[in-house]
Write a structure and sequence with these properties.
Elements lengths: L53 H13 L4 H24 L9 E6 L13 E8 L4 E5 L7 E6 L20 H18 L6 E4 L9 E6 L6 E13 L19 H8 L3 E4 L10 H4 L2 E4 L1 H9 L17 H18 L9 H14 L11 H18 L20 H16 L18 H11 L2 H32 L2
Parallel strand pairs: 2-7
Antiparallel strand pairs: 1-2, 3-4, 4-9, 5-6, 6-7, 7-8, 8-9
Helix pairs in contact: 7-8, 7-9, 8-9
């Protein structure tokens, strides 16, 4: 993220709304209200953090160290994914069946490229940027600025016409996803690697990605997965619901916020998860700022020098890793009850926490346990209040009943409280279990033990006892014989 003069004026008007473009039937552009920069704070104030026991502090630090990716695991995984990405892009650029996908470019996103991936480098996200003519969008009112219907300003004779609905203007999210899935399947059929192979997973109705899994020689051995997400790049100014920009003035600075507003944003083919969607909602797109989120996490300091060297290190990203680890443990333990929980909820709470506690001096490595517990308490506060606004589209509540079922939210609040009160058992590093195996050294040791002086004395004692018992038995038999023999 470049800190400097703003690239574009923050309050510019969305130019694609100017003029009299041709509009699809039954779609009206409603002038949005004036954007106001919003932020979210826990209504009860910053949750207090009690003194952290030494044992819990030790567990948190140890777990934080264990979550870092090992270089020996990262290199082969990154090489595998990079080869796949480069060959897929070449295939799309050379394909003659679908010219619309020829002019693609790559945007790496996700936790690995944000340097907050935990445990293993086994999940990667690749966004394929698709260029489109000038477009317009209409917000779906029920979802407060997160989902949109997209249509062209005017009819087009270009390659995009294959993905338009009957009105000739509305861009179909389902058609783009279907063609993306077909092209990736065709590519994978001819794509070979030296060890293992790639497979295309079944389509998920609410997912904007085509998911690939890399399997080892054993079919059941899944090594890693890659999500390939087609996205429409838009450089025409942000929608009104997000135009105020994220609340980073105190944290990253006003100039950075203006620079963020000058960047493009993306629409990905994802429709809402709610039931009984209308035909228009089924063809909707979700707004995405993943490229900006990546930059905000990578360049996260209040000062430019943050994390430039050992003396300037902070614990911000480590706190996010710990929260992701806790989420992962909760979802493994309560998979059905917490199906709606995802890492994006934690990332959103993390951004709000950084906006409030923005000074670098509050995030020194020595304060890791305190910083993590403050982040956890703030997220727990959001869960209990049922209110976690999207960091860029603050009118949309990620904990609304349409996005996160109330029963699951109540269960999550109880689970978080139980974890906190019992010392975060899901973060504890399990003690190593000794392996039970044959060792020649153990046999030699047993033989040596048998020859030790203490063991020899035991053997002599047993021998003497046997002799005494046998002698007594012989004398007893002799007396009986003498007394009763006629």
């Amino acid at each position: 993220m470049v800190r400097g003069q703003p690239q574009k004026k923050a309050g510019r008007v969305n130019k694609e709304m100017v003029g009299s473009p041709v509009e699809p039937e039954n779609i009206k552009i409603v002038p949005p209200p004036k954007a106001i920069q919003k932020t979210w704070h826990c209504p009860k104030g910053a949750p207090a953090v009690d003194e952290i026991p030494k044992e819990l502090d030790r567990w948190i630090r140890q777990r934080g160290r264990d979550l870092r990716l090992r270089q020996v695991e990262r290199q082969p995984a990154v090489k595998l994914v990079n080869n796949l990405r480069n060959d897929l892009v070449k295939f799309l650029k050379d394909n003659e069946e679908q010219p619309f996908f020829r002019d693609v470019s790559v945007l790496n996103s996700g936790s690995y490229y944000e340097f907050v991936k935990i445990n293993k480098p086994n999940e990667f996200d690749i966004m394929l940027k698709l260029k489109t003519p000038r477009i317009q969008w209409k917000m779906l009112e029920k979802f407060n600025g997160l989902f949109y219907t997209i249509f062209l300003q005017r009819p087009s004779r270009g390659e995009i016409r294959t993905f338009l609905l009957e009105d000739g203007l509305t861009i179909s999210a389902s058609k783009v996803m279907k063609e993306m899935h077909r092209l990736v399947q065709k590519f994978i059929k001819t794509y070979k690697v030296s060890k293992g192979h790639w497979v295309v997973c079944r389509k998920k109705i609410n997912s904007p990605a085509v998911t690939l899994e890399f399997l080892g020689d054993n079919e059941e051995d899944e090594i890693l997965s890659v999500d390939i997400v087609p996205a429409l790049e838009v450089s025409q100014g942000w929608p009104e619901a997000a135009r105020a920009g994220p609340d980073v003035d105190n944290w990253l600075g006003k100039n950075v916020r203006r620079a963020i507003l000058g960047k493009p944003f993306y629409f990905v083919p994802k429709r809402p998860k709610t039931r009984n969607l209308s035909d228009v909602e089924k063809e909707s797109w979700r707004i995405s700022f993943s490229h900006i989120e990546k930059e905000m996490i990578r360049y996260h300091g209040n000062k430019r020098t943050c994390c430039e060297g050992k003396q300037n290190e902070c614990c911000r990203k480590l706190c996010l890793r710990l929260l992701k680890c806790l989420f992962e443990g909760l979802k493994q333990t309560y998979s059905s009850e917490l199906d709606a929980l995802c890492s994006y909820h934690g990332k959103t709470a993390f951004f709000y926490n950084l906006s409030e506690r923005y000074e670098d001096s509050l995030w020194t490595p020595g304060q890791l346990s305190v910083c993590f517990m403050k982040l956890l308490r703030q997220f727990e506060c959001a869960v209990n209040d049922g209110y976690l606004p999207h960091f860029f589209v603050t009118d949309h509540n990620l904990f609304s009943s349409s996005s996160f079922p109330k029963r699951s939210l109540l269960f999550l609040g109880n689970a978080l409280r139980e974890q906190r009160e019992t010392g975060l058992p899901l973060l504890r590093v399990p003690d190593p279990i000794p392996r039970l195996s044959y060792s020649p050294a153990l046999q030699v040791r047993a033989q040596e033990n048998a020859l030790e002086p203490q063991n020899c004395d035991n053997v002599k004692f047993l021998r003497r006892s046997c002799i005494v018992l046998l002698t007594g038995a012989f004398i007893f038999c002799a007396i009986i014989y003498a007394l009763y023999l006629p």
